[in-house]
Write a structure and sequence with these properties.
The protein is about 20% helix and about 40% strand. The protein is an alpha+beta fold. It has a single domain (about 20-120, about 150-180), classed as Lipoprotein localisation LolA/LolB/LppX (outer membrane lipoprotein receptor (LolB), chain A, Clam). Strand 10 and strand 11 form a beta hairpin. The chain is built from four helices and eleven strands. It has helices at about 1-15, 20-25, 95-105, 110-115; strands at about 30-40, 45-55, 60-65, 70-80, 80-85, 90-95, 130, 140-145, 145-150, 160-165, 170-180. Mean pLDDT is about 80; it is low at about 1-25. It has an eleven-stranded antiparallel sheet with strand order 6-5-4-3-2-1-11-10-9-8-7, covered by helices on one side.
Length: about 180
């Protein structure tokens, strides 16, 4: 019995060292910084504002701004977990960003997968299920109940592109105004 308890203790201690949420929650290995706009409809409510996002394999930092430019929420993901701070300085913590945003904002944000989508990619285990348009660009994918659509700008010279996500009663439209890839 003591040996079993010792083994269980070692296993649990080893798990405590794993990054929160696992590899999927960390998202793309490609670092980037993004500025854009976001519109979210969730149930009878809606939010629209600016989005600034800094991503790498170790951290995510997201600022959601209200329509007048004030910070609406700040999300930080690192090796210790995820934290969401509201404008009223209320703080929420979780090991899952989707659970965290659902609790703190009222709608779920699939940040790990979204880090692929904004780069025009799909998570590695969904590549075979992705739909492509006539030019071979990603057009859509379904993953974990989310329907994801890429909307290419009508003007080929336009730099903004859009990613639309929908799951149950949540719709997210993300317009990417500026995306810089590489070490941040």
């Amino acid at each position: 019995m003591r040996v079993a308890m010792l083994v269980l203790g070692v296993l649990l201690a080893g798990c405590a060292q794993l990054p929160f949420g696992g590899v999927r929650e960390q998202g793309s290995a490609d670092a980037f910084e993004l500025q854009g706009r976001v519109y979210v409809r969730y149930g009878p409510s809606a939010f629209s504002g600016s989005l600034r996002w800094r991503h790498d394999t170790l951290t995510d930092e997201v600022w959601l701004g209200g329509p007048l430019g004030q910070t609406g929420a700040h999300i930080l993901r690192d090796a210790t977990g995820a934290t969401l701070t509201t404008p009223g300085q209320q703080t929420y913590q979780s090991t899952s960003i989707e659970a965290l945003t659902r609790k703190g904002l009222g709608w779920a944000l699939p940040l790990g997968d979204l880090s692929y989508y904004v780069l025009g990619k799909v998570p590695p285990d969904t590549e075979g299920t992705a739909e492509r348009d006539a030019q071979g660009r990603l057009a859509g994918v379904r993953r974990d109940g989310w329907n994801v659509r890429w909307v290419a700008p009508e003007d080929a010279k336009a730099s903004a592109k859009r990613v639309d996500l929908a799951k149950e009663d949540v719709e997210i439209r993300l317009v990417i105004d500026r995306l810089e890839q590489g070490a941040m």
